[in-house]
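Task 17 of the worksheet. Students: predict the tertiary structure of the chain below and write it out as structure tokens. Keep your answer in the requested format; marks are given for formatting as well as content.
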Amino acid sequence: MTTTVAIVGATGKMGQLVSRIIRNSDDFEVVAEIDSKGELNDMLGADIAVDVTLPAVSQGVVEFAIAHGISVLVGTSGWSSDRITSLERKITGNLAVGVVIVPNFSIGSVLATAFATMAARFYESIEIIEAHHASKIDSPSGTAVRTAELMGVARASLGPVVAPHTDQRARGQQVSSIPIHSLRMQGIVAKQDVIFGGNGEVLTLSHETLAPSAYESGILIALRATVSARGVVVGLDKLISLTPPEKPEPEQQERE
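Model answer:
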């Protein structure tokens, strides 16, 4: 059975990528392509919606979709933990729809964030440097915010990181006490470094997106999850297994 999809933000780079992926798939069909200023009523009748608009537009798109019983995949930045909590309150009790929020569709980025979350408990000094193309209008990126928030949760019992001179603007924006520095430059697609400083050592976890094709498998995974999603699901890591399968116990040899 084919799932029909309305894409909001279809004229942008990510919207065009999502449209191409859907048209090349066997289980999805595009039935509406709406730009970020378009008429949201055009999404009515679709099985699910994809929001790849702008941070200032995204919340309205999501609220319209869930009000009309349409599950939505959100690929737009700007969904902080406070904003997600507010959305969860609005969707509580509505068992008919789901909202899947994915800050980054790259499998490599998801793994880098998971590794950073693991490392956060072992270092008191942590900072993030993220870089994107010059036309990205928001900063810090949704991926950087999500990474900092997850690291903050992982080290909640340890307190804030050591981040001196945060009164100076050049020290970056703090999220969960972790300074984030944003670059917006020509020639860059997306890059994030999470830097951990310790006693006599520095650990850097780095991920770089070289081409939009890095997002393709993650977009398909998220689309398929949105079809049956209920409630609010945040992060591609919730849709894939990051835990390796357990090694089966060797069969006990029969004694002769």
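Marker's comment: The chain has two domains: 3-105+212-238, 107-209. The longest helix spans residues 55-67.
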